[in-house]
Amino acid sequence: MKDNSKVVIALMAGLAAGAVLGILFAPDKGNETRDKLSESLKNLGDSIRETAANEINNLVSLKDKIVDNLKSKLEDTEEEYQDDLEHA
């Protein structure tokens, strides 16, 4: 995982923790506090899912680049081998 992703995840966790503490210490009724807490946790879950999806897409893209690179090198090596056989 990239350093930027770690920072974003840490920032989201810190924001969620701050929101939870703020809600818990707010002078609201219990059910209002639970509703706010539930909404904050839902938003955190959505953010985590979005970040995870982005990282998965990055990994898939990286995998595709690596596979294409390896295929290209294999084809080049095969062509060189065929040329060597023809000239031997």
Report on the structure:
This protein is mostly helical and about 90 residues long. It is about 90% helix and about 0% strand. It has helices spanning about 5-25, 30-85. The two termini are about 50 Å apart. The model has no long low-confidence stretch (mean pLDDT about 85).
Q: Low-confidence spans: pLDDT under 50, at least 5 residues?
A: none
Which structural class do you get from the secondary structure elements? mainly alpha
Taking Cα atoms only, what radius of gyration do you get, to the nearest Å? 25 Å
How far the N terminus sits from the C terminus, by CA atoms, comes to: 48 Å
Helix share of residues? over 70%
Tally of helical runs? 2
If you average the pLDDT, what whole number results? 84
Described by the principal axes of the CA atoms, the overall outline is rod-shaped
Q: Would you report the number of β strands?
A: 0
- Major sheet size, sense and barrel closure: none
Strand content: under 5%
Q: What order do the helices and strands follow?
A: HH
Topology at a glance:
Layout: H1 3-24, H2 30-87
Helix pairs in contact: 1-2
